[in-house]
Design a protein that fits this description.
The protein has a domain of about 30 residues. The termini are far apart. With about 45 residues, the chain is mostly beta strands. The chain is flat and about 45 Å long. About 0% of the residues lie in helices and about 25% in strands.
Length: about 45
């Protein structure tokens, strides 16, 4: 899977969070495991 520019990845083992500043091929690895892509947080409604 390619790294996505501007996306945050989190390690499920130690909790480290990284921000991708340069897109490219390959994956982000931490503690020997692939890091997972974080989903964007929902913003509250301004109603």
């Amino acid at each position: 899977m390619a790294n996505q520019l501007g996306k945050r990845y989190q390690c499920e083992v130690c909790g480290t969070i990284v921000l991708c500043t340069k897109a490219g091929e390959g994956g982000v690895i931490c503690d020997g495991h692939p890091m997972v892509l974080q989903e964007p947080k929902k913003l509250p409604s301004s109603d």
